[in-house]
Amino acid sequence: MVTISVVKQVLDANDRIAQENRRLFDEKGIYVINLMSSPGAGKTSLVERTIEELRQRYKLAVIEGDIQDTYDAERVAALGIPVVQINTGGGCHIDANMVREAMADLPLDGVDLLIVENVGNLVCPAEFKVGENDKIMILSTPEGADKPSKYPLMFHESSVLLINKMDLMTHVSFDLTKARADALKCNPALAIFEVSCKTGNGLDGWFAWITEHIERFKTRTA
Amino acid sequence: MHEMSLSASLLAIVSDYAGRHHFSKVNTLRLSFGALSCIEPRSLELAFGVLSQGTPAQDARLEFDIQPVVVKCLTCERESASEEFPCPCPQCTSSEVILMKGTEELKLLEMDVD
Fold first, then answer.
1. CB contact under 8 A, A7 and B2
2. Which residues contact B40 (CB under 8 A, 6 or more apart)?
3. What predicted TM-score, i.e. pTM, was given to this entire model?
């Protein structure tokens, strides 16, 4: 018997493709976010709100990931924004290769912001880089304030946490103080915004964040 | 079930090494990951067992070196290992702690082969 020393990240192959995606995005000056949450937390609603706010100023594109169906992509297409649907066929996350294939079907020239909406899941998407600049996550108040302590990896990896459905908070006994405190223990640098995609409350902070990051990226790549 | 994707990536690495080091059977794979990395050892064993059928890694044993959670206390400024997270500081019980370690990705450390 022989022992072979390997010491290799098992997701190395995915990370390499993610880096290739990133190189292409850098060349084209595209700022990319990987949007993650549980099913039903409000990813597509946030995408719609963000498109409505930024469409006058920026050119946008969207990659929609779902296990099956094209319902979310149709919602985005209805706004006149280029969108490609990835159906993972049972897969619980989007990986870098799926994004690479989807990019071929998307007119990327001149795009300022590409939103990759991941499959609804608080576990696996955190591990698979797709070539994004930042991971953005949503936690909605009906899910409960225990999510940062149950799924710390996702909170650890994200740059932004949007606490959505704030309009429902009083009905679902969501402990906002605990959610915020536990999320910051996972990641002290996390930017947290309390929002309602339904009423629009609180979204100004998010719009300011994303605009600042698109602009910062533009000056960096210029 | 990201354990399925992880197993497939693991088998791709094994296949790559089998070509270069000319072995026909893997007895043991030693893996490491952080306690908070959302990897379930039993699910990984199950997925790996199914996907490795007919490969050199069929029937290989998986050994797990699980990296502990380490928190830093903002009150006493000490770092300590912890069984769980979130948790109070194990040394001074302050609740002002931040996560330092425990989310390490799955790594293949070494393999015993014939």
1. no
2. B3
3. 0.91
**CA B64 to centroid of chain Cα atoms:** 6
Query: In tens digits, what is the pLDDT along chain A, a chain of 222 residues?
Result: 899 999 989 999 899 999 999 999 999 999 999 999 999 999 999 999 999 999 999 999 999 999 988 999 999 999 999 999 999 888 889 999 999 999 999 999 999 999 999 999 998 899 899 999 999 999 999 999 999 999 999 999 999 999 999 999 999 999 999 999 999 999 999 999 999 999 999 999 999 999 999 999 999 855
Give A182's contacts in chain B (Cβ within 8 Å): 86
Q: What is the ipTM of this complex?
A: 0.81
Residue B54 structure tokens: 């007919």
Q: Chain A window 144-203: which residues touch B at a Cβ cutoff of 8 Å?
A: 148-149, 151-153, 156-157, 181-182, 184-188
Contacts of B17 in chain A (CB under 8 A): 4, 6
Provide the number of CB pairs (under 8 Å) joining chain A to chain B: 107
Neighboring chain A residues of B106 at a CB cutoff of 8 Å: 9-11
Residue A134 backbone class (left: φ over 0; alpha: ψ -120 to 50; beta: rest): beta
Amino acid symbol at B9: S
**Which homologous superfamily does the CATH classification assign to the domain defined by A12-221?**
P-loop containing nucleotide triphosphate hydrolases (3.40.50.300)
Q: Which CATH architecture has domain B2-68+103-113?
A: 2-Layer Sandwich (3.30)
